[in-house]
Structure formats: structure tokens, C-alpha cells
């Protein structure tokens, strides 16, 4: 094969003629993110994350073979945003609860989320009820996490050459379904291979899924790097009035508040420049004055949450959603794919601990009403900043707050990004 | 069994048993030596294949927007009441009811197919009668509707191209006077464009297929007219089907292909008996078969392939996938079909109308064709008009005709037109200030559908219908189209509920841009088009939807809706 030269974002590159663009770019030190492209498989062109422009025309990079004189754009603002948007679409289409996912930390989609800096999705989550199919012999298919990349369809075959996975249905109902008969013929190695090529946690092998412990996962960075230190706050000390902070936990677990306290002795530096108004930390129940910043943990699952959130909006200049629940519902939103009626009946009438023949779901005018689903905070009021994580680590939270309060530029480093 | 026969095999089971059972799937997968899931995958892609048993009478009611404004809801409830079944469920022994996207009868809405026979201009009364007759055991064929569309307009006699009197074999005889290259040159010179909606030059396609040397080549006629609002191909199949055959035979002559296949959408299955009769006549007159009209070695055969209900199969590459017995997913394009098409052989895929025009161009000469229309788009074009007009139907117009004229008293007689959808949901929408625009390459091309809506129609209702259509018909392979159209549908619904801010409208434009930019095929590249356009073109309408901004920085949030469910559950569970 003859060598050719082409350009990526104005940079001269060389490769073998006809080489796949993703591979060719990699050889030239340029990373084009993709989720469906896989080594020897024919280009699938399904995830569209690798969308690039070739001589001004958009195309999925993985479906492009390089040729002499090609002028390829990869990292223009338009394409970077499109790439991020496509990933966001995947997050809202499925139900990706990273904190409860076996693949978290080893998940290629999550990694690209960090890589592209997704803090929240511009799209509302769709919360479609999707099944977890544990009927196959070895494999569990969790449809909540499937991004329909087609890798397993093309790659996983029995020794006889039969497909084990395939698409069924079409449109927004498209699923990757599994053939039970063929799946049973897979060897252990073949089944594990299926799990490994899945870019998310959609295909798991029973008894094999918790391969790596936390902190040792493919896309986790070492602890040393993880903690961006929280210091120098004292330099903002003035004789003027201290900045005021309010915090609250809505439909959350208070884990984010625990994390806030995890800053250890840093809290002593902190309170020299800020004071806490309404907050579980101070146990002040009502706003006593207007605040500079409000930190919201948790989303809105009942009418009380909505009232509190609106009150915060009214009393704070800047509102920050802290943690996954606040940003898009988080773990409480697992109920969003289940009708409210079923949730209530399960909790109050049919659960193991409820009395036999119980027919009453508790209700009183003083008890907040449960909303039909858990809403993210920005669906209810305007939210100025989002800090992802479950929970975000302490230094990260306070660094962000510090920089917002004192108007300093701050870019979030990859190791601080976590959805779990 | 050959994989290309899969769709036919599935149809056999579907027709005979009303569904394709697990047993049948096993049998088929064994004979093809593939896994069951592969067959299920194909079945579940197509709307007309069922995996669950259906009733003896399967009713498909058109749910497109024209049907909707002509009384779809009433018809739907009447069907449900009379048959005792619900739509989109399995049904009972006697009936199964399903909604379906446009069945190409927009000038006769509401319309339904019952066991693939057409029943048009439905009213609740008519529905009652139909169901009664079925229950009485009458033969459906005896009271199915006549669907032949009215040809409402043709240019002055000497300027009409398509709908002038048809003489069988005339264009083939004319074409045989020339060499195959000369025939292609004539088509190229005539500037004939692909009329299925992509407007790719037909001559170029033929030439490219001719240049790719191979022992086997195919001419495929795309009769999968799925773009909602379009029914001009049906009109050709009903009025002048001979033109289509002759166009294919000439394409075969020009490119060296010996086999022609017409991919007919299942919605037009009722046309098949007549069409096949004509095919026999062609064979008996030696216009088809071996040594056509005595020309040594000029062989050509035509057969039909029936589709199974999928909009995206109207795209040439997906259509070929479908013919090869797979899901109609537009493949990753490495080659053009004229190089590696059906069965990997050089293939021309042309729309019905394109082939019919090709036949007329050879018959009447390219100079005549070039003398009509405009510089860039010579000739005439078929437009199917429906909606709020007094005279819905088929219009053969010269290119360069304005929308104003089309809507006017001499033509379709629109009543207070406000919103025009040109070329179906994937096309463009235009407002009244643009009615002077002309249908031609220089201004705005039209794939064949013109849907007219008057001032009383709700634009969001129109778009909800369009977006639901795309959401359902996306092949599901690529993220932006599958998820993006779903997300846009939800957005339209949200705005319909009265929750709309300027940001929502901006979102639609930005999100639409991303979907267009990154989708794999034409479906996703066009689906958000019209919606994005409408926001700019109908500011009066959208501006009043926007809720006034509030000082509290509350986002539009529907508290009533959020607690409605709880209230109604609690009401039922208290003592």
C-alpha cells in the first residue's frame, strides 16, 4: 500500500492509503472518540460519536478511508459540540445510573462523558422502561445501558458462526435482543468476550461482572492526582461582610453534604471567608438574609422539594446543583420508569413489611404530595452551575464554590470528573 | 432457500396464518442456516409482519396528518366500538386493528386498508356498514373502494408529457432506433432528475451503471412511495403503468441489465393483479422476455417484490438491503449502487415517476422535453395535492409553476391556505409570503407531495404528527436519528402542553442542527428540517406560545400535571 498525506485540523498527517481514519489519526497522535468502532469489525457507523468533516461534508470518521489530500476537521467547536450532544443523547435515551452500574469506571461511554466534559445533559431524560434480561444461560442483558452500537451483533458468534445478538424492532423501540438457543452454545471465553467488547455495562456475564475494585478501574486515575487540593481560600479574607452560603438536601441521601464536610480542616479556613445561612450544617431552618450562593443536593420528588427549591432560587444569587440527583434525578429517578401507582402500592401495600390486606396509602394535607416522577432541578428553576458526582469529592465542591464566589477562572480536570 | 426470498417467505406465512409463529421462524432460520434472532430481527423491522396471532381481518388505519384533520379520531373510535378491539393490540379472532403511516390515499382520507384492500373517504357511518358487511361474511373485494386518483390538471394538450394517450411499445420501438449509449445521452441531455425526492441526475446513474462492466446488472424500480402525502406513483401505476415498464426495459437496454424488479410497497398490494395482467400482455407482445421485438440478445424480465411496511426502505440503499432479506437499514455507504448494488451487482434504482418520464423522453424526444419547464428543470412534474383544497388529486404541471397558481381557482382551489408542506414531512414548509415561489430547481423542488393547511389548523399538531412518524420510522441504527427524533417529539409535546419559552424554540433549532449534521442517512438528515424552518417562518404562531418570562427565574413547570397522578391514586385508596 502506498503512503499518502492528508490533513487533520490543518496538521499534516501520513498514513497508508485506504486506512481507516480512526486508526490513521491515532497513528498520527490524534484521538477521535468513538464507541462503535472496533478493531477488525467492518465500520459500523452507528454511534456517530466520531462524526468529522471531510472536505466540508460530515461523515462518521470510522466509515472513512483516508486518501491523498483529504482535508479533515475533527476538533472544531461545531463538531466538539455535536459529539458531546450525541453522547448526551445516549445518556438520556437509556437509563444510565452510573453509581449502581457494575461497569462504572471501566465504561467507555462514561469515559467519553468525562472526556467531553458532560456535567449535565441539555436534553431531558426520556426514562423509558427497559428490561433487564437474565434469562440467558450466562449473560445478563441490561437494556437500560445499551447504546445500540452493534458491536456485539457483528462480533459475537457461536462456533458454528451463528449470531447471538441482533436488533429487533425499529425506531425508538429498537433493541439489541439475544438468541437464547445460540447463547447457550457460547463458551465461557466467548461470553466474557461479549462483556468486554460492550462499551457500556449492557452485557454482563453472571458471576464475572465485578472484575476490578474501585480505584483500580480502567478509567479511574490514581488517588494522588484525584485530589486537587483545596487551599488558598484565606487570601480572600476581607473586613467586608462574609459571603453567605445556603445548602439543602432535597430528594437526595445527604451524601453530598457528607462529602462537603469531608474537606476536613479546610472547613476552618472556609468559615473565615464565608458564613452558612439556611443549611443542615448550621441547622438554620429559614433564610435570615439573602445569600450569595445556594448548594442544592437532590432532585425534586415531592411538592415540598419544589417549594424549597423555589425558595432557594428567590433567596440566592447563584444556584448550584450538587451531585447526580440534583442534576438529573440520580438514583431516586430509578422509579421514573415505573408508574407512580405501582411504586406506592409496592411501598405501602404489597411490600414484605406491610400489614396483610393493607389498603391505605398514607396521605394527609401536611404530607407533601409525591410527584409523578423525580424532576431534575433545572426542570423547575434556573440553575447556574452543575457539579457532577455521586458524591462529588469535597475538594472539588469547595474549589468550584470558591471560584464561583471569588470569580476566578477554573477548569475542571479530568480526574475530578466522576458520575459515581 | 436464497436469502433474497426471505421477505416473500415471510409474506407467505403472514398471509396464510395471519402471523409468523415461533415454529415458522425456526423452520426459516434452519433453511437459511442462521439463528432465530436473525429472522425475528427482520420480522420486527417491518410493520406488516406480526409475531402474534391476528384476527381474520387486519385493519390498518392511516394516521397521517391529513387523515387526522379529516376525522381520524372519530373513525378510530368507531372501528374500536364496532369490532370490540383496541388499536395496536392483538385483537380478537375476527379483527385486529393497527394504525399505519401514509398509505398513499391522501386525496381520499380518512382511509384504511382491510386485508390490504382500500376503503376510502371513511365516515363513522361507513365504518359501521363495512364492519357489518364483514360480520355478515360478505366478500371484501365486492365493496372495497375504487381509489383511482383524479387527474385534476394537465398542461395544454401538446404540452402534456405523462398523461397524454399511451400507446403500448411506442417508446421501446423508438428507443431501439438508437444505440444504448445514445439512449443514455438523450436522458442525460434531457436533465431528467430522480423524482423520488433526491433529485439525482438519472442519466448519470444510467451511465455509471453502464460503465461498470459485469455479467449481471439490475434495474430496480422504487415503488415504495412512503413519504406522507405522496400518491403520484400510485397514479402512474393506475393510469399509465405501461410507461413504467417501458422505462425499465429501456434502462435495461441502455445499461445492459437483463432483470428488472419492482419493489412495490405492500400498501399498494391491491394494484398488483392489474399490474401483473399488464406484465403478461407485455410478454405476449414480446416487449418483455427473450429477444425483445426481434432484437437478438435484447432480453429483459420484470418481476415484483413486495415490501412490508417501512418508510426508510424508500431510500435506495435500504431498499436493496430489504430486497436481500435483511432489515431495511441504510448501510454504511462504501460504494454507489451502480457499482455494487443488489446482490453486489451494478444496479440502477429509479423511482416510478423517473422511469415513466424516461420512457416519454425517448418516445417524444429530449428536445420536446427541454422545450417545457425551466432552464434547470425542463419538462413537467407530478404533484399530489391534499389537505384543505377543493380539488385534491394529481396535477401534472410544468416546472416553474408557482404555488400561488397551484392553489388558485384554476387548479386545486385552496381555502385560506396558511401553511404548505412541500415534499412531505422531510421537505420544506412555506408560509403565505412565499406562495409566489416556483417549483423548479432554480427555486424549490418538490418530491411530489403538497399538503395544504388552512388557518384553523394547529401547526404544532402537524409537527407532532410528523415527529411521531419519524420517531417510529427511523431504522434505529444511529444515535442522532433514533434518540434525536424521540427527543424532539417530546419537545413538541411539551410545547403543545403550553410549556414553552424562547429557549425551547432555540433548543429545537440547535438540536435539529445536530441531528441533521450527524445522522447516517437522509431520514435523520431531513427529519428536523421543516420544524426548524417553521419557527422562523411562522413567528406569529410561535410567539404567542411563549410564556412571559418571570422574575423568580422559575422554569416553565407544570405542577398540576406533576401531582395529578398522585391525587387520583390517593382518591381511590382512602377509606
UniProtKB/TrEMBL annotation, chain A:
Keyword Repeat included in the entry's annotation: no
Top-level lineage group: Bacteria
Family matches, as SUPFAM superfamilies: 2Fe-2S ferredoxin-like (SSF54292), HydA/Nqo6-like (SSF56770)
Pfam families: Fer2_4 (PF13510), Fer4_Nqo3 (PF22117), NADH-G_4Fe-4S_3 (PF10588), Oxidored_q6 (PF01058)
Keyword Chloroplast carried by entry: no
Domain 4Fe-4S His(Cys)3-ligated-type: residue ranges: 78-117
Family matches, as PROSITE patterns: 2FE2S_FER_2, 4FE4S_HC3
Residue span(s) of domain 2Fe-2S ferredoxin-type: 2-80
Leader sequence segment: none
The entry's keywords: 4Fe-4S, Iron, Iron-sulfur, Metal-binding, Oxidoreductase
Protein name, per record: 2Fe-2S iron-sulfur cluster-binding protein
Organism field: Lutibacter aestuarii
Amino acid at each position: 500500500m502506498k503512503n499518502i498525506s492528508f490533513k487533520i485540523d490543518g496538521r499534516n498527517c501520513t498514513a497508508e492509503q485506504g486506512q481507516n481514519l480512526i486508526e490513521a489519526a491515532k497513528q498520527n497522535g490524534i484521538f477521535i472518540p468513538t464507541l462503535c468502532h472496533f478493531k477488525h469489525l467492518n465500520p459500523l457507523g452507528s454511534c456517530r460519536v466520531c462524526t468529522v468533516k471531510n472536505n466540508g461534508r460530515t461523515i462518521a470518521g470510522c466509515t472513512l478511508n483516508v486518501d491523498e489530500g483529504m482535508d479533515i476537521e475533527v476538533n472544531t467547536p461545531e463538531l466538539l459540540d455535536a459529539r458531546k450532544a450525541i453522547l448526551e443523547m445516549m445518556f438520556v435515551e437509556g437509563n444510565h445510573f452510573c453509581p449502581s452500574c457494575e461497569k462504572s469506571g471501566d465504561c467507555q461511554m462514561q469515559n467519553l462523558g468525562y472526556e467531553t466534559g458532560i456535567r449535565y445533559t441539555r436534553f431531558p431524560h426520556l426514562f423509558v422502561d427497559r428490561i433487564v434480561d437474565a434469562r440467558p444461560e450466562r449473560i445478563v442483558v441490561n437494556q437500560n445501558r445499551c447504546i445500540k452500537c452493534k458491536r456485539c451483533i457483528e462480533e459475537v458468534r457461536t462456533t458454528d458462526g451463528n449470531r447471538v445478538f441482533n436488533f429487533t424492532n425499529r425506531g425508538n423501540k429498537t433493541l439489541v435482543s439475544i438468541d437464547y438457543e445460540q447463547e447457550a452454545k457460547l463458551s465461557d471465553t466467548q461470553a466474557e468476550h461479549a462483556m468486554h467488547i460492550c462499551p457500556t455495562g449492557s452485557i454482563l456475564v453472571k458471576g464475572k461482572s465485578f472484575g476490578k475494585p474501585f480505584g483500580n478501574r480502567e478509567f479511574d486515575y490514581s488517588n494522588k492526582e484525584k485530589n486537587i487540593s483545596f487551599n488558598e481560600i484565606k487570601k480572600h479574607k476581607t473586613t467586608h461582610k462574609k459571603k453567605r452560603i445556603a445548602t439543602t438536601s432535597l430528594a437526595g441521601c445527604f451524601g453530598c453534604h457528607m462529602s462537603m464536610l469531608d474537606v476536613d480542616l479546610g472547613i476552618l479556613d472556609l468559615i473565615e471567608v464565608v458564613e452558612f445561612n439556611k443549611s443542615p450544617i448550621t441547622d438554620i431552618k429559614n433564610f435570615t438574609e439573602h445569600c450569595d450562593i445556594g448548594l442544592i443536593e437532590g432532585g425534586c420528588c415531592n411538592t415540598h422539594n419544589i417549594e424549597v427549591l423555589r425558595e432557594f432560587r428567590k433567596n440566592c444569587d447563584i444556584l448550584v446543583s450538587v451531585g447526580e440527583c440534583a442534576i438529573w434525578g440520580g438514583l431516586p429517578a430509578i422509579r421514573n420508569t415505573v408508574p407512580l401507582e405501582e411504586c406506592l402500592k409496592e411501598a405501602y401495600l404489597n411490600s414484605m413489611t406491610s400489614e396483610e390486606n393493607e389498603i391505605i396509602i398514607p396521605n394527609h394535607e401536611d404530607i407533601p404530595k409525591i410527584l409523578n416522577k423525580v424532576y431534575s432541578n433545572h426542570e423547575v428553576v434556573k440553575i447556574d452551575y452543575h457539579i457532577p458526582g455521586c458524591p462529588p469529592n469535597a475538594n472539588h465542591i469547595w474549589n468550584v464554590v470558591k471560584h464561583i464566589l471569588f470569580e476566578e477562572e477554573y477548569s475542571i480536570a479530568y480526574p475530578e470528573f466522576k458520575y459515581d | 432457500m436464497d436469502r433474497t426470498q426471505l421477505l416473500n417467505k415471510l409474506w407467505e406465512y403472514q398471509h396464510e396464518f395471519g402471523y409468523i409463529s415461533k415454529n415458522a421462524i425456526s423452520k426459516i432460520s434452519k433453511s437459511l442456516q442462521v439463528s432465530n434472532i436473525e429472522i425475528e430481527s427482520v420480522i420486527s423491522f417491518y410493520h406488516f409482519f406480526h409475531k402474534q396471532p391476528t384476527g381474520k381481518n387486519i385493519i390498518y388505519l392511516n394516521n397521517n396528518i391529513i387523515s387526522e384533520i379529516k376525522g381520524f379520531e372519530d373513525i378510530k373510535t368507531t372501528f374500536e366500538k364496532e369490532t370490540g378491539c383496541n388499536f395496536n393490540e392483538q385483537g380478537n379472532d375476527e379483527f385486529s386493528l393497527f394504525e399505519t403511516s401514509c398509505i398513499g390515499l391522501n386525496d381520499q382520507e380518512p382511509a384504511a386498508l382491510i386485508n390490504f384492500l382500500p376503503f376510502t373517504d371513511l365516515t363513522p357511518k361507513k365504518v359501521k356498514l363495512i364492519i357489518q358487511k364483514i360480520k355478515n361474511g360478505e366478500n371484501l373485494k365486492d365493496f372495497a373502494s375504487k381509489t383511482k386518483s383524479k387527474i385534476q390538471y394537465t398542461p395544454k394538450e401538446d404540452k402534456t408529457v405523462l398523461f397524454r394517450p399511451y400507446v403500448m411499445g411506442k417508446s421501446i420501438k423508438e428507443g431501439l432506433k438508437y444505440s444504448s449509449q445514445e439512449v443514455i445521452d438523450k436522458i442525460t441531455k434531457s436533465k431528467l432528475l430522480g423524482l423520488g425526492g433526491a433529485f439525482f441526475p438519472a442519466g448519470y446513474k444510467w451511465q455509471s451503471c453502464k460503465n461498470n462492466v459485469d455479467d449481471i446488472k439490475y434495474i430496480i424500480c422504487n415503488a415504495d412511495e412512503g413519504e406522507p402525502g405522496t400518491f403520484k406513483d400510485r397514479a402512474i401505476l393506475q393510469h399509465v403503468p405501461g410507461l413504467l415498464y417501458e422505462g425499465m426495459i429501456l434502462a435495461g437496454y441502455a445499461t445492459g441489465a437483463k432483470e428488472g424488479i419492482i419493489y412495490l410497497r405492500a400498501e399498494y398490494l391491491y394494484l398488483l393483479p392489474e399490474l401483473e395482467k399488464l406484465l403478461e400482455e407485455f410478454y405476449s407482445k414480446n416487449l418483455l422476455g427473450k429477444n425483445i421485438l426481434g432484437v437478438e440478445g435484447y432480453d429483459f424480465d420484470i418481476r415484483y417484490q413486495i415490501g412490508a411496511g417501512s418508510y426508510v426502505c424508500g431510500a435506495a440503499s435500504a431498499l436493496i438491503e430489504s430486497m436481500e432479506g435483511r432489515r431495511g437499514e441504510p448501510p454504511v455507504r462504501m460504494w454507489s449502487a451502480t457499482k455494487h448494488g443488489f446482490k453486489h451487482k451494478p444496479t440502477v434504482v429509479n423511482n416510478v415517476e423517473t422511469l415513466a418520464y424516461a420512457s416519454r423522453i425517448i418516445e417524444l424526444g429530449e428536445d420536446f422535453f427541454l422545450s417545457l419547464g425551466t432552464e434547470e428543470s425542463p419538462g413537467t412534474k407530478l404533484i399530489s395535492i391534499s389537505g384543505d383544497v377543493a380539488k385534491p388529486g394529481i396535477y401534472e404541471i410544468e416546472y416553474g409553476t408557482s404555488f400561488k397558481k397551484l392553489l388558485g381557482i384554476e387548479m386545486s382551489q385552496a381555502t385560506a391556505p396558511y401553511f404548505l408542506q412541500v415534499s412531505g414531512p422531510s421537505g420544506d414548509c412555506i408560509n403565505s409570503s412565499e406562495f409566489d415561489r416556483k417549483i423548479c430547481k432554480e427555486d424549490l423542488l418538490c418530491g411530489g407531495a403538497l399538503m395544504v393547511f388552512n388557518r384553523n389548523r394547529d401547526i404544532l399538531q402537524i409537527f407532532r404528527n410528523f415527529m411521531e412518524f419519524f420517531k417510529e420510522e427511523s431504522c434505529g441504527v444511529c444515535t442522532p436519528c433514533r434518540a434525536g427524533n424521540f427527543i424532539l417529539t417530546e419537545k413538541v409535546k411539551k410545547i403543545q402542553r403550553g410549556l414553552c419559552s424562547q429557549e425551547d424554540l432555540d433548543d429545537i433549532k440547535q438540536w435539529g442542527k445536530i441531528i441533521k449534521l450527524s445522522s447516517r442517512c437522509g431520514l435523520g438528515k431531513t427529519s428536523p428540517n421543516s420544524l426548524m424552518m417553521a419557527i422562523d417562518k411562522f413567528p406569529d404562531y410561535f410567539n404567542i406560545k411563549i410564556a412571559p418570562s418571570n422574575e423568580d427565574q422559575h422554569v416553565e413547570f407544570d405542577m398540576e400535571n406533576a401531582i395529578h397522578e398522585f391525587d387520583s391514586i390517593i382518591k381511590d385508596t382512602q377509606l
